[in-house]
Design a protein that fits this description.
6-stranded antiparallel sheet
Length: 428
């Protein structure tokens, strides 16, 4: 029995050993760098539908397919002076899929440089295309003369022969400082509302927003009239009359003040935290200060629009709990004659939830005015942050409620001061 056991043990060990060595040697798909130099026949876009298209250049961060011979001899690849990441599983003898590096070249050779394992370099003519500037947003679209403002985006590139330029309303604006993703400038005296345009050696881009953007304005002086002929005349128009203030903190005359009270997880304080604009007068008319918001601004393309406003929160009174419910409503939900707030309390009616403190636990603007952008395609939540029962429709834009309540809770008790001005609905 002992002899039989030993024989079985030796047979099993021999079998395992043979399997191990066979497994180590039998790796037909193992990637190996080949000898010699690569040759490129052509370069094409990715995708079968583009297989017949040939490329002489490609934009940064775009994937391309290189077709040639002996491409497994490549151990390093550079587009101009920027190294590309090579993924062995995407390389065969005849094809190589690679992403054009996303960093703007420091030196432009308009070539691909391919290194083999012996350090020999093979060149191929190919241009890295840099996009025209892209513009995302501005720190404060309503910055005052003498204040610094910052525009954020990408591909802000200066060139000795074609300098980076910023114009607003056709006026050339000196740039204080910049890098590839931001431009900071000081607002000059007398600058009026106007289109923002950035130009580089790679092209020109016009922002979708304006400086001092008054397009799509819904609330600018909150019914006080201090905006003169530009006043929309709209202000508090519901159950509560929140504070409308004009003081040393003003951005552009009167502003709405929410808060200045303690709030915690379960706070419901519509007396201090809810601004309501419900259209209509008690006699059933909808004109002047009782107008529907959709009479001031077209919401026909609301899916490609955003709610924007400027906000100012002092560092001494940060916001650390509850979400701001941003609720557009239609006549079917509420008008002043019906005065029914059930659409935002305990229903699945869609809304936007703005909770800027949730990322860090606290939010303030250090007492500066900043622009807030809330795309309307994100207005799809119930008050508690779960999915709403259905989407907004074009009929849901006659009124507006802003209410700090519910949403993201489990924050800390706070006593925020939230100043809001220039509420507008604009293309986004």
């Amino acid at each position: 029995m002992k002899k039989l056991f030993n024989s079985l043990f030796l047979l099993t060990a021999l079998t395992l050993t043979t399997a191990v060595f066979t497994g180590c040697k039998d790796e037909p798909d193992k990637y190996e760098v080949s000898d010699g130099n690569p040759t490129i026949s052509y370069i094409r876009p990715l995708g079968a539908e583009s297989a017949d298209s040939l490329l002489t250049g490609a934009y940064m961060d775009n994937g391309i397919c290189i077709v040639g011979n002996n491409l497994r001899s490549i151990v390093k690849m550079y587009f101009n002076d920027q190294e590309a990441q090579l993924i062995p599983s995407l390389i065969t003898d005849n094809t190589l899929i690679v992403t054009v590096p996303g960093t703007i070249p420091g030196v432009v050779y308009n070539k691909i440089f391919m290194h083999n394992k012996d350090g020999v370099i093979t060149e191929y003519d190919f241009k890295v295309l840099v996009p025209a500037p892209s513009i995302n947003n501005m720190s404060n679209e309503w910055a005052k003369p003498g204040e610094q403002a910052t525009i954020y985006g990408n591909y802000f590139v200066d060139d000795p022969n074609t300098p980076l330029t910023l114009t607003i309303g056709g006026t050339n604006i000196p740039i204080d400082e910049f890098d590839i993703s931001h431009i900071t400038f000081t607002v000059p005296a007398g600058l009026q509302e106007g289109a923002i345009e950035i130009s580089s050696v790679y092209g020109k881009k016009k922002a979708k927003f304006n400086y001092h953007d008054s397009r799509g304005m819904l609330f600018n002086d909150w019914g006080t009239g201090d905006a003169g002929a530009a006043s929309t005349t709209l202000g508090n128009h519901g159950w509560h009359a929140q504070q409308i203030v004009s003081d040393e903190y003003s951005l552009d005359g009167s502003y709405l003040l929410l808060g200045d009270c303690d709030i915690k997880d379960d706070t419901w304080n519509d007396g201090n935290l809810s601004f309501e604009y419900w259209p209509g007068d008690w006699d059933g008319t909808f004109t002047g200060p009782n107008a529907r918001l959709s009479d001031l601004v077209s919401f026909a393309n609301f899916a490609n629009m955003a709610l924007k406003f400027e906000v100012n929160i002092p560092a001494s009174n940060p916001w650390t709990n509850l979400s701001m419910q941003c609720i557009f409503s239609g006549d079917a939900q509420v008008t002043l004659p019906t005065a029914n707030n059930k659409f935002f309390n305990g229903t699945d009616y869609p809304r936007g939830l703005w909770t800027p403190w949730s990322a860090t636990g606290s939010y303030d603007t250090n007492g500066e005015w900043v622009t807030v952008t809330l795309p309307l395609n994100t207005f799809k939540y119930k008050n508690d942050g779960t999915a709403a029962g259905g989407p907004l429709t074009v009929d849901n834009f006659t009124g507006l409620t802003l209410f700090l309540w519910s949403g993201v809770t489990s924050g800390t008790t706070c006593h925020p001061i939230i100043r809001i001005d220039n509420v507008r609905a604009v293309e986004y």
